[in-house]
Amino acid sequence: MRDRKYTVADNIKYYRKRVCMTQQDLAEKADMSNDTIKRIESGIRGMSLDTFLSIADALKVEPALLLSENSKDMLPIEKVHAILSGRSKAEQDYLVFMMEKLVEGLCIISN
Fold first, then answer.
1. What is the mean pLDDT for each group of 10 consecutive residues in the chain (111 residues)?
2. DSSP 8-state assignment for residue 71
3. 36-60 per-residue burial string, b: 16 or more CB within 10 A, e: under 16
4. Alpha-carbon dihedral of residues 91, 93, 94, 96, nearest 10 degrees?
């Protein structure tokens, strides 16, 4: 089994990038240093529960998503939620619109 801190580190990096956030952006939003974020994302440094929750809040994701060992195990609705989290209303509306168009395309193909 993989060391949990590397799983969390990879997930923090993944969700940070999903919302187009730099390490510096995350550090500012989570009220910590850029060096701390770099060390956490590289797995060099563990973190306290408070730090973990601050990062989850800054990323606007459920803490459980940062603990997931494999995003393939996530339910589809959790994946959609993760994609939409932290995005502006306009971005969310656009992404939902695109999903609707994709579903329409699937209906055309399957008929």
1. 81 89 96 96 91 94 84 71 83 93 80 58
2. G
3. bbeebbebeeebeeebbebbbebbe
4. 120
- CA 60 to the chain's CA centroid: 8
Output phi, psi for 16, to 5 deg. Answer: -65, -45
Phi, psi of 60 (to 5 degrees): 60, 45
Residue 61 is predicted with a pLDDT of: 86
Q: CA torsion sign, 82 to 86 to 53 to 25?
A: positive
Per-residue pLDDT at 37: 97
CA–CA separation, 88 and 5 (whole Å): 30
Closest by CA to 51, choosing from 74, 29, 25, 30, is 30
- State how far the Cα of 108 lies from the Cα of 94, in Å rounded to an integer: 21
Distance CA 53, CA 51 (A): 5
**Six-digit token pair at 71?**
């995003």
Give CA–CA dist 78/38, Å, rounded.
26
Tokens (6 digits) for 107: 């209906």
